[in-house]
Amino acid sequence: MKAKMAIAFALSILVVASISSFELYSYENIRNHPGLVLKVTNMDSALGQAFSSGSIQAFGQNSSSILLSGTSTYYKPTDFSTPALVSLGSLNAKATGINLSEVANHYFHDGSVFGTSWNGSSWIITGEISWGRVDEGAAVVLNNTGDYNLTADLGKYFQNGGIWFDSWNGSGWLFGGNEDKHASLVGLYHGKFIDYSGLIGPAGYDSWIQLIMWNGTSWLIGGHFIFGFLTSGRYYNVISKTEFYNSGVYSAVYTQGKWIIGGGPKAALEVINGTSVSRSFNLPAYFDNWVNGLAPFEKGFVAGGEASAPNGHMEPALYYFSLTGSGIDFTNITDYLPSSFSMGQVQFLAPVSLSNVTGILIVGQGNYNETNGHSNGAMALLTD
C-alpha cells in the first residue's frame, strides 16, 4: 500500500512546473567563434542526494517536467547498483528536484534506469532489474490514471541484459538494448510487440543498442558495433561504412541541414547523407574517447562525452562545433562545466524547454573511482 501511495503521488507531481529567477554565468567572445555567447548554469543543487554515489544516464521531458534517470549507487566489484529517478519542474538554478526513488525501487529493484520518454499522455521508463547476478530488461508506463508494468511482456526480449534506450515516433515505441551479450531491438505498436533483433544481423558478441532516433522517415539505430536505419520493416546496416565499425555510434543530431553521428572510441564525428557517410572529421586531440551526446546550438552543435587526462583518469569533454565549406570549426568549452563533472564524463545532452526557458541540458557523472565505481551525478544548463 505504501508503494502504491508513493507512486500515485509521483504521478501527480510529474505534471507540475514552476519557474522563478534564472541565474547564469555568461561567457562571450569565444575563441574561433567570436560572435558566440554561452551562458552556463550549475544545476547540481536540484539533484539532492538522488545520484550521490551514482550517475545520471539520460532524461526525457514533457511540457511541464524533465525526468532524470540513472543510478543512486554503483559498486563495480559486484556490478551492484540501485536505480534513481528525479522529476525536475523548473530550469531555475535553485530548483529542487523531486526524488522518485520509491517509484524507481518498486519497478527496478537492484538495477538501473536508463531511458525516459513521453508520448503525449504517458511516460515510459526503461532500464534493467537485477535478480542477484542475473539482469533482465525492465519497463513501466506511468500516467495520471495509473501505472502498467511492462517487464513481464518486454523483459523476455532482454534476458541477461537491459533496455538501454527507448523512443517514440508518434505511432509506436522502439526499445533497444541487449540480451545475452547481443543487441536486441523490439517495437511496440498498437499493443503488439515486434522483435526486430533478427533484422540487425550478426552484430557480434558484446553488442548493444544505445541510440534510437526518428528522422521523419526512418529510425536511426546506434550502439556498440551497431549503426543502421530501420524503415518499413527493413534494416539497412551501414556500420562498416563508418569510422565506428570496430567501436560504436552513441549520438546523433540534425543541424545545418545535415545528420551528424558521434561515438567511439576513438571519438569521431561523421556526416550522413541518406544511408552513406559523406564526410568524416577527426576531433581535437583532447576529445579522444567517446561522443556520448550531440545537440543543435546556435549556428552549429554541441558535443559532449569523455576524454582522457594525462594521468589516465577519465575527464569530461564539451565542445561547440560548426560546419564550414571545407571542414569544421571547434571551440573547447569543457572548462565551463561545473566542477562536479571533474574526473567524470558527459553521458547525455539534449535540448530542453520549460516555462519559456530553453537550452541544452547536460548530465553525467564526476569523481569516478576506478576501483569501486562510485561517482556523483552532475548537471548543467547551457543557453545562449
Describe this structure in words.
It is a single chain. With 384 residues, the chain is mainly β. It is 7% helix and 55% strand. The chain is globular, with a radius of gyration of 20 Å. It has a single domain, classed as Methylamine Dehydrogenase, Chain H. The protein has helices at 2-13, 101-108, 151-154, 197-200, and strands spanning 25-30, 33-42, 55-61, 66-75, 80-88, 98-99, 110-118, 123-131, 134-143, 146-149, 162-168, 173-179, 182-189, 192-195, 208-214, 219-224, 226-231, 234-237, 249-255, 258-263, 268-273, 276-282, 290-297, 300-308, 314-323, 328-332, 345-354, 357-366, 376-383. A five-stranded antiparallel beta sheet has the order 1-2-29-28-27, with no helix packed on it.
N-to-C span: 46 Å
Question: Which architecture per CATH?
Answer: 7 Propeller
SS strand fraction: over 45%
Sheet with most strands: strand arrangement? 1-2-29-28-27
Structural class category: mainly beta
Number of distinct beta strands: 29
Radius of gyration from the alpha-carbon trace, in angstroms? 20 Å
CATH topology name = Methylamine Dehydrogenase, Chain H
What is this structure's SSE topology?
Elements: H1 2-13, E1 25-30, E2 33-42, E3 55-61, E4 66-75, E5 80-88, E6 98-99, H2 101-108, E7 110-118, E8 123-131, E9 134-143, E10 146-149, H3 151-154, E11 162-168, E12 173-179, E13 182-189, E14 192-195, H4 197-200, E15 208-214, E16 219-224, E17 226-231, E18 234-237, E19 249-255, E20 258-263, E21 268-273, E22 276-282, E23 290-297, E24 300-308, E25 314-323, E26 328-332, E27 345-354, E28 357-366, E29 376-383
Antiparallel strand pairs: 1-2, 2-29, 3-4, 4-5, 5-6, 7-8, 8-9, 9-10, 11-12, 12-13, 13-14, 15-16, 16-17, 17-18, 19-20, 20-21, 21-22, 23-24, 24-25, 25-26, 27-28, 28-29
